[in-house]
Design goal:
This protein is α/β, with parallel strands linked by helices. It is built from eight helices and nine strands.
């Protein structure tokens, strides 16, 4: 599978991801048995914003994590200065990826994993407690402990304070802790950063985030990653149909409820 890209390769940090297929020993083993990995040859990356979207278990987070590790980021998240590990849970896929880069080099970078951001916050506090004369790391996140904020507030502190622009940012399901209004705030901040020569690669379920104009969207399908238009994503269509007539959709979802007994609805 080779998908064509828009824009010049020289003005972006990453322009494509290649799977070193001749080094893969078996496509029957995880994660190479995932359709989006099994069919992968070269994946072109947009100069500004690339989304990877798909159902749970489709492998989008596994692929994004492997791309991040191939670029030198800690698999649990953080900047390239973070090297901690609380649990070895990432796959070896990064060893089989070749990241093709442009001429420009980013001055900033970050890998955000929603599920392990707590560990990043803990590592920041741990490092700030160590003796030293330099500024506290937390100052670049807004100055307030990330553990003393809600999950959503800490995400916003990261995006609004730590992301400085002219950077490469990989985000795995950043909407996980965000209300719709906060997702709009992140969308606005992303636009500011893109205007400051930043590049994003994001795995997401959010129809709000993926509405960013002219973003390149890849959908995870049984045949592999396929380029898809925003209005054709399942996320957009399901959300649109539900909001257009929630009562009709709820009736459809609940129409068989009368056939269920208490024994099937509740554990005794």
């Amino acid at each position: 599978m080779i998908v064509q890209m828009r824009g010049s390769q020289s003005d972006q940090f990453v322009h494509s991801i290649q799977l070193k297929r001749n080094e893969v020993k078996s496509y029957a083993l995880y994660p190479f048995n995932l359709p989006i990995v099994k069919s992968l040859n070269r994946l072109q990356i947009d100069p500004h914003l690339t989304f990877i979207v798909g159902d749970n278990g489709s492998g989008k987070s596994t692929l994004l994590e492997a791309i991040a590790a191939s670029l030198g980021f800690n698999p649990e998240g953080g900047s390239k200065n973070f090297s901690f590990g609380t649990r070895e849970s990432h796959s070896d896929l990064h060893k089989y990826l070749r990241v093709c880069k442009g001429i420009k080099k980013p001055k900033d970078g970050y890998f955000l994993r929603a599920e392990s951001f707590f560990n990043v916050a803990t590592e920041i506090e741990k490092r700030d407690e160590e003796p030293g004369g330099g500024p506290k790391i937390i100052e670049s996140y807004g100055g307030t402990s990330l553990h003393e904020q809600s999950h959503g507030e800490s995400f916003l502190s990261l995006v609004c304070n730590r992301f400085r622009g002219n950077g490469l940012y990989l985000l795995d399901e950043p909407e996980a802790a965000l209300s719709p209004q906060r997702q709009l705030s992140v969308l606005s901040r992303m636009h500011q950063l893109i205007q400051r020569d930043s590049q994003f690669i994001i795995a997401t379920h959010s129809p709000i985030l993926m509405a960013y104009p002219d973003a390149l969207i890849y959908g995870c399908t049984p045949e592999g990653l396929k380029k898809v238009q925003y209005e054709d994503t399942e996320h957009f269509r399901v959300t649109r149909d539900f909001l257009a007539n929630p009562n009709r959709m709820l009736r459809e979802l609940f129409k068989d409820d009368d056939d269920l007994s208490d024994d099937t609805l509740f554990d005794k």
